[in-house]
Amino acid sequence: MTSDHPDPSPPSPATDRWVVQPGRPLVGELRVPGDKSISHRALLFGSLTTGSCQVTGFLPGGDCLATLGCVRGLGIRVDQLGATEVVVHGRGLGGLQAPTEPLDCVRSGTTMRLLAGLLAGQPFASTLVAAPQLARRPMARVAAPLALLGARITTTDGRPPLRITGTPLHGAEVTLPVASAQLKSAVLLAGLFATGETIVHEPGPSRDHSERLLAALGADLAVQGPTVRLRPGGSLRPFSLAVPGDPSSAAFPLVAALLVPGSRLAVTGVGINPTRTGLFDVLQRMGARLTIVPTGEQGGEPVGTLWAEPGGSLRGVEVGGETVVRAIDELPLLAVAACHAVGVTVLRDAAELRVKETDRIETIVTELRRLGAAITASPDGFVVHGPCPLQGGTVTSHGDHRLAMALTVAGLGAAGPVTVEGTACVGDSFPGFFSALAAVGALEGDCRP
Question: How big is the CA angle at 228 (ends 227 and 234), to the nearest 5 degrees?
């Protein structure tokens, strides 16, 4: 059975609660939607080029659509040729227009933080607003490094809305307190509009999609380990980009296939950029039958096919340091896998999880304990004593798309039916998630209550 691109339409309210029946093998091949991080950047960097940029494989999820709306609010024409194909008509580095109303980032932290960098050096003022979930998230962490370039950004007690007074910027040397692709990208975007060189130091590696794309567009950029140097000047050339499948999205069906007996699943066309494969590395250390087969390059990013099947027994591991940065979005899923592992799994150095869409440490611990997991929270992670077979029950996503998908995977590997409440949010990053699982046999067509 093969599933290509799942239905990109956002879930309807009728699908906001799913009953997951356990034990149905995942068999066949599927493709996951385009990479969320790259889709955001294609819109933002494309708007700064000097021509039309064609993007295929664009992720039509809620977060990327928030970026699309903001880009249009800045006077950039974006044609949607289909759900996953857009054309961004760039107006050059000086072509953005003052918005006539606040720019709504909805629930997307990436949108807000990257836009803060983009707008800091514009000759106009702008305001970034957010839905309640995003309005709770910390934004002083992006205002502070941008201030080193001369940006004038005010927050509301460190949180949205952001009020940006466009002002001339100057290059600076910025040392980020944490490895963060969002903060790094915000500073680089601001650096495009600064006079003089901008240097960004990180304490460790983070996603490098911005650097790859900027280099492809002709920016004067140099990368040496965790340090990036950007010299402004010239223009950014237009591009054609085929966005690879999102490895964060691919992780959910792959882990389900590792846990459900009889599964044999391939996910094709997935981005395997090493800054994104932290969870896959951890799963292999745990003894998972997970194979990565490189198949080439797509849009300057390495891609491949990932195969997963159950076999043997998973073992507990310790996870921390640089691996956490490379697996940050998938760590709730690690907790699910750890429930099936023999021994103790310890996650540390992951305090960043507490300031995501939810406090992902507390929420995943709370919800998995409802299913019988032997899991406890720590200030910067969690500890799982496995194996702790999961039972049926009712859990909630707390409006967090990653949590909703992780709990669905937990249900597939549980001993009884699991009702997951609040699942419409999966459309933020994986439109068609339930359709994709159904296409490879994991869900029945009548799994909705």
Answer: 165
d(CA 152, CA 336): 43
* Residue 153, strand partner residues: 164
Q: Residues 92-131: pLDDT tens digits? A: 999 999 999 999 999 999 999 999 999 999 999 999 999 9
Q: Which residues are annotated as catalytic?
A: 329
pTM of the model: 0.92
Q: Are 25 and 261 in contact (CB under 8 A)?
A: yes
Strands of the 240-242 sheet, one edge to the other: 77-82, 85-89, 52-56, 240-242
Q: Which residues contact 434 (CB under 8 A, 6 or more apart)?
A: 11, 15, 18, 408, 423, 426, 443, 447
- Residue of 67, 121, 73 whose CA lies nearest to 97: 73
Q: How far apart are CA 404 and CA 423, in angstroms?
A: 6
Residue 13: how many CB atoms within 10 A of its CB? 7
106: tokens are 């909805």
Element (H, E) at 134: helix 132-135
| Amino acid (one-letter) located at 77 | R
Q: Please, where are the H alpha helices in 287-395?
A: 322-326, 331-338, 360-370
10 Å Cβ neighbour count for 296?
9
User: Which two structure tokens, joined as six digits, stand for 379?
Assistant: 């200030």
Predicted confidence (pLDDT) per residue in 216-254, tens digit: 999 999 999 999 999 998 899 999 999 999 999 999 999
Burial 265-292 (b: 16+ CB within 10 A, else e): bbbbbbbbbebbbbbbbbbeebbbbbeb
* Per-position DSSP letters for 44-98, written without gaps between them: HHHTTBSSEEEEES---SHHHHHHHHHHHHTT-EEEEEETTEEEEE---TT----
Report the C-alpha gap between 339 and 256 in whole angstroms.
13
End-to-end C-alpha distance for the chain, whole angstroms = 25
